[in-house]
């Protein structure tokens, strides 16, 4: 959906795969970006303002990224990490079968999760009958600087936050820096490259 001076896209509502509900974040972001009055503010940089000048934010409920957060200025994807509890594992292998990343190994004394493989997608966390494997910390994975067009590039990792408010603050602070220091005709991703913001990975 295109709002005044920005665009926020999102993936499917109420998807059963969702690791994090994006609806509240969507509302908070809409309010914050509206308050920046970008149509007026960006007139200092672009005349006329074209569609590709407007910042694009993309929300996805899980690392599957169906709404394509990797090619937007700001990509925000939900995550939920698996947590192993003290409840005894009964060795049913349900969690092993559920993990597309083959990150879980079931052994005689319980399971092991390879953190280097795990995407924190949450797929394994609803299948455990013993309560050994449950949902742990959840939040948002942040990516910045993706674009299509003449010089396409994937967004780069910008870390993770746990709250909706932190995600909004990250977008807002980035935009305020761009409004303050972006040069005439300089698009957001080019500004971020000049600021070395995209050297985060
Ligand atoms: S990104 Fe995840 S939560 Fe959103 S529609 Fe795709 S699978 Fe569902
Ligand atoms: S959260 Fe996803 S990737 Fe990580 S172990 Fe569970 S199913 Fe595998
Ligand atoms: S689903 Fe639960 S009980 Fe079954 S192997 Fe995994 S951790 Fe153990």
Question: How would you describe what is shown here?
Answer:
Helix 1 (23-35) runs parallel beside helix 4. The chain is elongated and about 65 Å long. The model has no long low-confidence stretch (mean pLDDT 94). The chain has five helices and eight strands; from the N terminus they run ββααββαββββαα. The chain folds into two domains: 2-80 and 138-194, 2-Layer Sandwich (Sulfite Reductase Hemoprotein, domain 1), CATH 3.30.413.10; 81-134, 2-Layer Sandwich (Alpha-Beta Plaits). With 201 residues, it is of the alpha/beta class. The strands form two sheets. A six-stranded mixed beta sheet has the order 1-2-3-4-7-8, with helices on one face. A two-stranded antiparallel ribbon has the order 5-6. The protein is 23% helix and 24% strand. The site of one iron/sulfur cluster has 15 residues, from helix 3.
- Strand arrangement, largest sheet? 1-2-3-4-7-8
By CATH, the topology of the largest domain is: Sulfite Reductase Hemoprotein, domain 1
**In percent, how helical is the residue content?**
10-25%
Strand fraction: 15-25%
How are helices and strands ordered from N to C?
Answer: EEHHEEHEEEEHH
Gyration radius, rounded: 19 Å
What is the class of the largest domain in the CATH system? Alpha Beta
CATH architectural grouping of the largest domain = 2-Layer Sandwich
Per CATH, the superfamily of the largest domain is: Sulfite Reductase Hemoprotein, domain 1
Protein name: Sulfite reductase subunit alpha/beta
Domain 4Fe-4S ferredoxin-type: 80-105, 109-138
GO molecular function: heme binding; iron-sulfur cluster binding; metal ion binding; oxidoreductase activity
Keywords: Iron, Iron-sulfur, Metal-binding
């Amino acid at each position: 959906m295109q709002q005044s001076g920005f665009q926020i896209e999102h993936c499917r509502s109420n998807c059963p795969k969702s690791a994090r509900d994006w609806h509240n974040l969507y509302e908070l972001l809409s309010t914050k970006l509206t308050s920046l009055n970008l149509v007026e503010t960006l007139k200092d940089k672009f005349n006329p303002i074209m569609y590709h000048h407007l910042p694009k934010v993309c929300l996805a409920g899980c690392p599957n990224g169906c709404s394509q957060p990797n090619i937007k200025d700001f990509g925000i994807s939900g995550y939920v990490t698996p947590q192993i509890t003290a409840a005894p594992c009964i060795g049913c292998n349900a969690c092993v079968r559920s993990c597309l990343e083959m990150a879980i190994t079931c052994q005689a004394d319980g399971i092991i999760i390879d953190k280097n493989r795990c995407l924190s997608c949450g797929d394994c966390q609803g299948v455990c009958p013993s309560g050994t494997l449950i949902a742990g910390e959840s939040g948002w994975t942040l990516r910045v600087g993706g674009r299509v067009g003449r010089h396409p590039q994937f967004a780069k990792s910008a870390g993770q936050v746990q709250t909706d408010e932190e995600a909004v603050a990250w977008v807002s602070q980035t935009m305020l820096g761009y409004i303050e220091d972006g040069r005439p005709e300089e698009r957001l991703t080019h500004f971020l490259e000049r600021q070395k913001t995209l050297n985060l990975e």
